[in-house]
Specification:
Number of helices: 11
Oligomer: single chain
Strand order of the largest sheet: 4-3-5-6
Distance between the termini: 78 Å
Structural class: alpha/beta
Shape: globular
Radius of gyration: 22 Å
Largest sheet: 4 strands, mixed
Bound molecules: iron/sulfur cluster
Low-confidence stretches: 1-17
Amino acid sequence: MPFEVYTFRSSGKRLFAGKNTPHFHAVYGIIAHKQTIMQDIQTEMRNRAKELLESKQAGLVVGFTLDEYGKPTPAFITDPDDVGRLVWNDDCVRSRHNLVGCLKRDEVRKLGKPAVVVNAAGKRAFNVLIAESQREPGDVVLIDMEPEPRDARFDERYAKLAMLDTMSREERFAFWKKEFTRCFKCYACRQVCPLCYCTQCIVDKNRPQRIDTSATLKGNFAWNITRAFHLAGRCVGCGACSAACPAGIDLDLLNLSLARAGETHFDGYRAGENPDTLPIIGTFSVEDKETFIR
Ligand code: SF4
Ligand code: SF4
């Protein structure tokens, strides 16, 4: 057989190469080198986690482990001898889990000071929590897996909006109607979002009941638009809500539209890029042009 197929699950790509050709050796060499680097990073991460737990600098490490299908899923490690369960591979890099979202859970708060494995979006989410006085910088140890910001990726994601930009208002309304029809109010989007941290969500309040809780189109519009407005200027674009939505609604499109508007109208503002930057929502200046603010 002149060619064999090698499938590398971690890259999700199928590579074709003759087994004894220079091409094969070059490709395999690159992959093997990359996997060695990932393993080194994983070892370093586990060592750091062990050190934090043993020295009691953290009571809990939140990171990734693999589920029964080999996919990354959150792990909560309290015993230094369990750090071997922590995993870092290509799927974790691509994962849209935002582990900072776990910090709001009471079960996690009870386990002591947390250390959290974060990518660039996780760091931005933590910065928003600091800017909104929900956390102090020293409250959490960040195990930073992505030291360099990936601004380019954020820009690339605006490209998704081109599809909406070409639509008329009527077409956009029809598009969202079709999307929101599928929502059945499971609230998974809210549960995974690191920035949906209200102790009582507006949708759970019934005196007065501001949002229709039925999974009808009217109630679904009210829920999804209200949530998007609450995330305006705060969403860090991690994509955790889109990934969690069992109805496959691309909530990213909604959040990105508002993120782009924030960036366009507020001097290039991007949520979470700097913990010292005041949030655009909830901040005002007496110099503001709008009269309603005075
Ligand atoms: S709303 Fe934004 S910050 Fe929240 S989960 Fe979705 S993408 Fe992440
Ligand atoms: S996760 Fe999807 S289906 Fe569930 S409430 Fe959010 S938008 Fe609706």
